[in-house]
User: What shape does this take?
Amino acid sequence: MIDNKTLTQFIIEEQRKISGATGEFTLLVNDIATACKAISDGVNHGALAGVLGSAETENVQGETQKKMDILSNDIMLHVNGRNGHVAAMASEELDEISPVPEGAKHGKYLLVFDPLDGSSNMDVNVSVGTIFSVLKAPEGVAEPSEADFLQPGTQQILAGYALYGPSTVLVMTTGKGVNGFTLDRNIGEFILTHPNMTIPEDTQEFAINMSNMRFWEPPVKRYIDECLAGKEGPRGKDFNMRWVASMVAEVHRILTRGGIFMYPIDEKIKAKGEGGKLRLMYEANPMSLIVEQAGGASTTGRERILDIQPQHIHQRVPVVLGSKNEVERVTRYHLED
Ligand code: AHM
Ligand code: MG
Assistant: This one.
């Protein structure tokens, strides 16, 4: 593996292509990668490190936090907040945005993250991940407010995730394709193992939580019914299904072999007064940029996710993403509805 580039070598090479680059962005990516290595270490040690189970606290979403949710959040804040690259951060686990600590230098980047996505999988030893998104603070703003974060996904200058699975993989895009790096624990470096990841346009695999079927809207029901009808149905082919309950794992599978992932709006979600299950700014947006950059598509069913103007930091949206032709079909069914 020593023949392949490390993540640091890769981003420095990218930085050299940009005239006037200060190296600050490279340092920020390095910090994010360091935080992901530390989270990976905690996840890997599991029960040995005493990090399984509930912390008996609730986040702003009203979800009970796992111990590892809190630890991952602390690692992200601590590693990224003190080095002068970020102006402020926002997290799934924090009610309000987090300014850089007192006395620390203010950078120009806004870092938004879900420190441990799919954390209900922690206690059962199934894949979890970290999702991150970087925006620029508006020109001249040293101490950003929440309003400064509310930029559409098209404005992201970096989006990525770390997947803590059988191996730890960091996948990211700066808007010029998608690259994946595997953590070599022996040397402590992420190594470029998945250059130029692309999503096949067609697929015969879907991912959706089928237990919500009775609450779905007609276009989603129509699409899944047609998949389930298999060879004898209107699609004329059999479909396979997966549901890991960890968006990072689902997106990584889709980047590896194609597929469609859906967490649509449904009657149960609407009854709670929410716009979806997944969060726009630190789940849907970064994953949508990655998927689009890999040649796939991402929509709410009715509009491109990256075009949505966020109303608040913890906003939720329906998500349909993956292989382009399937996502376009689901969008068409919504428009015909
Ligand atoms: P989390 O950020 O609280 O872990 O929630 C997000 C996760 C996604 O990773 C996953 O796709 C979804 O929630 C699973 O939801 P469900 O348990 O309803 O199947
Ligand atoms: Mg999440």
User: Anything to note?
Assistant: The chain has two domains: 7-194, 205-336. The longest strand covers residues 109-117. The mean pLDDT is 95.
